[in-house]
Amino acid sequence: MLRPLCAGARGPLVALAATVAIGVFGAGTASAALRLPAHTIVPASCGLDVQAGFSHCNMKLVGNLKHKPLASAAPAGGYGPPDLLSAYSLASAAASAGGTQTVAIVDAYDDKTAEADIGTYRSQYGIAPCTTANGCFRKVNQSGVQGSYPSNNQSWSLEISLDLDMVSAFCPKCHILLVEATSNANTNLYAAENTAARLGATEISNSYGGSESSSDPSNNSFFNHPGIAITASSGDSGYGVEFPAASPYVTAVGGTSLTRAANSRGWSEVAWSGAGSGCSAYEPEQAWQQPLTPGCTHRAVADVSAVADPNTGVNVYDSNCSRLNSLLGNCFSGWGVVGGTSVASPLIASVYALAGNAASVTYGSFPYSETSSLNDVTSGSNSSSGCSPSYLCTAGTGYDGPTGLGTPNGTGAF
C-alpha cells in the first residue's frame, strides 16, 4: 500500500552526521567557510519509498539533533548563488547568458507559494524578479493549464522551491516554467514531461525517480525530445539505479560533496556517499559510453554531477509549511539547508541553458565530447561494501558512477 506523501508522512531518520565546514554567504559575495553545529540529515517526506508506478523526490534536509529540519529567518549555513557560481566557474556566463532559454521544472502536486517564495530567494541575492507579470515565470498543471492546479502538498512544495531556487542561482536571466503533475504517479509525471516540451522548454529538470522496472524502456518516449536538454537526478540512496536517470534520453546527474580548498580552483569535491549510480538492468548500452564503461553491458549512471551532499548543501526558501508539519519534520518554514541530487539536476539543466546549445542535444551523450571542460572528481564512494566493476560506485580518474564525467568547469561541456 502506498504511504501518503503529504502532511504527517515521515520516513526513517539518518544517524547523526559529523560536524562539517560549509559555505555561508551574503548577497552578491561568496563567503569563507563556516562550521555548522552538530546536525542530522532528515529524509524528505516526498522522498519516502513508494510502490511501483510512483516516484519520490531526491531531496534531504539538514536537521537539528531532534531530527527536525533547521529553519531560520535569514540564510545561514548553506551555499548561495555567489558560492555556486564561483565553484563551477559560471559567474561570467550567468551575468550575460540564458535570456533566450526556458528551464522547465517538473514536479508533483502544487506549491501554492511558489512564485512568492522564488521572489524572496531572488530578492535576498539581488537577482532580478521572475514573475508571471513580467513574463519570466509561468506555472501550469500537467495539461498545461494555468489557474487549475493539483492539491497543495507541503512536502513536494519544498522540492519545488529547491528546484526554482537553483535555476535562479545558476541562470538568473532564464525564463522558468513550472509544470505540476497531479500526483507523484509516474503516469502523471510523464504527462507533465510532455507538456513541458510542448510548451517550449529548452531544458527540463526532473528531481525525482523510482526503482527500475522492466517497463522503463517503453517509457523512454516521454523523455525523447530532441532539441531539449533533459536532466534527471540519480538518487539519494547510494549505489543503485533509478529511472528516469537511466533513460538514454536524459543527462543523469550524480552528486558530490563540495568544500572550499586552498588550491587553484578554490574548491574541492569528492563523490557524495548518497549519490545514485550503477549499471541499468533494463536500458541498453549506449555507444557514447562504451569506451568508458567496461563490464557494464547496459546504460551506466551517472553522466555528470554537481553538489548534492546535504552536509555541504544549499540555502532554500519555502513558506508553504504549516507549524504542524514543521514540528513533524516534514518541511520547514523560512530558510533552510537542503541537499540531495535534487539540487544537482536543476543546476545542470541551468548550465545547459547558459551554454545555449540545447537545440543540438538529442541524447544524454552531449558532455562526453568535451570532458576537458569538466572538473574530474577522483575520490569518494557511495557503497560501503563495494561493487563490481568498482568504478560504478567509487570515484576515480575519468568516468565513474557516482560523479560521471565530473562537474561543470564553465559551460564548455554543455
Could you characterize the architecture of this molecule?
With 414 residues, the chain is of the alpha/beta class. It has one domain: Peptidase S8/S53 domain (Rossmann fold, 3-Layer(aba) Sandwich), CATH 3.40.50.200. The chain is 19% helix and 23% strand. The strands form 6 sheets. Strands 6, 7, 8, 9, 11, 13, 14 and 17 form an 8-stranded mixed sheet that branches. Helix 1 packs across helix 4, helix 3 runs parallel beside helix 4 and helix 4 packs parallel to helix 8. The chain is globular, with a radius of gyration of 19 Å. The N and C termini lie far apart (41 Å). The N terminus is likely disordered.
Considering the chains and any ligands shown, give keywords for the structure.
single chain, 414 residues, alpha/beta, Rossmann fold, eight-stranded mixed β-sheet, four-stranded antiparallel β-sheet, 8 helices, 21 strands, disordered N terminus
Spell out the blueprint of helices and strands.
Blueprint: E1 21-23, E2 33-35, E3 40-43, E4 56-57, E5 60-63, H1 81-87, H2 91-96, E6 102-108, H3 114-124, E7 137-141, H4 154-170, E8 175-181, H5 186-198, E9 203-206, E10 208-211, H6 216-219, E11 229-233, E12 242-243, E13 251-260, E14 267-271, E15 278-284, E16 298-301, E17 304-307, E18 314-318, H7 323-328, E19 334-339, H8 341-355, E20 374-375, E21 407-408
Parallel strand pairs: 6-8, 6-9, 7-8, 9-11, 11-13, 13-17
Antiparallel strand pairs: 1-2, 3-5, 4-10, 5-19, 10-12, 13-14, 15-16, 18-19, 20-21
Helix pairs in contact: 1-4, 3-4, 4-8
CATH topology: Rossmann fold
Q: How many structural domains in the coordinates? A: 1
For the sheet with most strands, the description reads: 8 strands, mixed
Q: Averaging pLDDT over every residue, what do you get? A: 90
Q: Terminal Cα separation, in Å? A: 41 Å
CATH top level? Alpha Beta
Radius of gyration: 19 Å
In CATH, the architecture is 3-Layer(aba) Sandwich
Secondary-structure-based class equals: alpha/beta
Number of strands: 21
Parts with pLDDT < 50 across at least 5 consecutive residues: 1-34
Backbone shape? globular
Order of H and E elements: EEEEEHHEHEHEHEEHEEEEEEEEHEHEE
